[in-house]
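Researcher: Go.
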Amino acid sequence: MTKSPTDQISSNPSLSEIYRDAQTITNIFYWFIALIALGLFAGIFIVMSTNDVFAATSLGLGLLSTLACLILVRRQKIELAAVTLAIILIILITLNATHGLGIHHISIFAYPVVLIIASLIARKKLMIFLTVLTILCTAWLVFGELNDFYTPARLERSVPGDFFSVSIILILTAVMVRQLTEALFQSNQKLKHELRERKLAEAKYRSIIENAVDGFFQSTPDGRFISVNNTVAHMYGYDSPQEMIQNVTDISSQIYVNPELRASVRKRLTNGEKITGFELQAYRKDGSTLWVSLNTQAILDAKGEVLHYEGTVEDITERKLAEMTLQKNQQRLEAFFNQSLDGFSLACSMHPNNGMTPRTRTASCSIFSPTSILQK
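Model: Structure:
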């Protein structure tokens, strides 16, 4: 049995299926991690200018963890790298906010940014996890302060570091989203081109099938035609393929003269057999019969279940009638000889022709029966 070329689309497609080029996504993530590392490195110098050792330490740990994600990217485990990086950034943002202004800290502006970027890479379940983690971190910043689990610092005035922090977040967001959307756009263009090519190929294939000399059909296991070409429709006496598809609701009884043959064909196809040259007698639309030669196979889906049957059918009525006529003549000849009362013998002699060269001779043969010999 053959699997259908239009197998079911996976509900969890890989990155190569989404972006069509995994190497492009790999290169984007190399640059993205480099930019994040650069931003964290710059952040360390910014907070060190204010003698914030805790923030510098947390940023340093975040920098090392971010660089470790390069190993995952190199192995092209992009989704795992994206999720790991998102977790690192969410935790890092939460730590800095806890040590700083709490829910009012400028760094929490990066929460939605992280989720937006991760959503372009991560699957649904992983995005749910990251979203829940972000909500829990936000809850900690709000309810942790309300329940005196931590005390945020007081905002006295803005510092230059706020500008640099926001600028880095905006730059990273713009670059990453732009690169990923560009990859999606190129993938979409390729898909459109492939779709156009496939439609043209299908139209050409359909035209060939519809106008082919051989009859082509597709049918369901329960006995209805899905498609037939003009040759099949005219072969069975219908004016068009549409008329045949609409009128034939049970192939076993409306096409097969012997319905049991249809059950036999279906059983063989279910067992994975390809049927070739299967001869059977079939009904036309007007009730007359014809002989056809059937070639068919089962088409499977991605799960191995039968989608439909498809194959070709050829009108062999003239050949079949000639074979039957020849067989009848042979039977009559055998009966004639078997039922004859006289035995027959054949006698031949060679003699030269008058006026011809000695080597030129002709043969004359006579059939004798024992009765004729006795009479002589």
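Model: Residues 15-191 form one domain.
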